[in-house]
TrEMBL record:
<dbReference type="InterPro" id="IPR033749">
    <property type="entry name" value="Polyprenyl_synt_CS"/>
</dbReference>
<keyword id="KW-0479">Metal-binding</keyword>
<protein>
    <submittedName>
        <fullName>Geranylgeranyl pyrophosphate synthase</fullName>
    </submittedName>
</protein>
<feature type="region of interest" description="Disordered">
    <location>
        <begin position="1"/>
        <end position="25"/>
    </location>
</feature>
<dbReference type="InterPro" id="IPR008949">
    <property type="entry name" value="Isoprenoid_synthase_dom_sf"/>
</dbReference>
<feature type="compositionally biased region" description="Basic and acidic residues">
    <location>
        <begin position="8"/>
        <end position="17"/>
    </location>
</feature>
<keyword id="KW-0460">Magnesium</keyword>
<dbReference type="InterPro" id="IPR000092">
    <property type="entry name" value="Polyprenyl_synt"/>
</dbReference>
<keyword id="KW-0808">Transferase</keyword>
<dbReference type="Pfam" id="PF00348">
    <property type="entry name" value="polyprenyl_synt"/>
</dbReference>
<comment type="similarity">
    <text>Belongs to the FPP/GGPP synthase family.</text>
</comment>
Amino acid sequence: MQRRPSAHVHEASHDAPPHALGADPDQDTAAVIGTLLERYLAQRREEAARSSEQFAQDVIDVLIDVVLRGGKRTRPAFLWWGWRGCGGESRGTNAEAVLKVATALELLQACAVIHDDLMDGSPSRRGAPAAHVAFADRHRAAGLRGDPDDFGAYAAVLAGDLALVWAHDLFESAGLDAKARRAAAPAWQAMRTEIIAGQYLDLYGQSTGVDSPEESLRVAYLKSGLYTVERPLHLGAAIAGAGPDLIASLRRAGRSAGVAFQLRNDLVGVFGSDGSGEPSGDDIKDGASTYLTAIALQRARAHSRHEAERQLRDAIGNRDLAPEDLRRVRDLLTRLGAADAVETRIEQLTADALTVLEQAGLQAPARERLPALVRRIVEKRPAG
């Protein structure tokens, strides 16, 4: 059943230039989001530089590099297709406001990755130094006093906080009308808390050694799945004026797809992906409570494979693991059937998401594009 936008979403003028932002968001959402990010970050940098050029050069330039360095702009894409699938138009004032809200999600993502890299001690992000490493390198290059690594950590906290602040600023200034803002506010507010809750539970799991498959799925959902798929879809649908049943369907589909997305990332982190070279194994080294390792430990216990369990427990949380040690861990995870079990769970979750989307009654072209997006984020990426 076709749904029209609710009354609080103004009808767009279809005589307006269709791609005022440089690209058609239906054809290349990432390009439009990239343009908006560049414009917004340049504007905020210019404002900040009036108060302190030092701050702009040292902190904002690193933040801008993290945000613009790459990324598939997955979260904005889900918000956009949630909007389009619930009757939102592809052009005009309302569409531009929605795209700005979608852009704010990339700033939330920047906050999450900067803080996550710091907490995990990750040296790089997308082929370049992670933010805390970049700050420490600048400290060393300038010959400043104190410990460079401490400086890098403190500065990264500030940069991540700044990204969070700017995300909210962009949401508030996006241009949504009052009714649309009220409809979107609960999801926006909840999402920002959920991101931090997920990161904390991940940190807590590393500290306690939680190895329950059910708890690891909960962490996967909160840490990544919820704000990657479910909440973006929720936001897009709410802004478009969708009813509660349609929003509930999109959220269910997003929940399944989001967890599948995180489970795929867990596999890639251990087994690698196309063009990734030797996988880092950071989740193993950090002791992260992933579904992959939890299932492996559960199976080792169930089949009394005590030596396999001991080897896994010795490896999980050991930051000094050598490449050959990680290869042994991968072999253990494979022989215990854990990798296949995760693949099966991904397939089940994906099938559930696609079934819900098929039955939701979405408008074209979202009927085709949203399922394609789900398939893309969970597709199997063999080691390269």
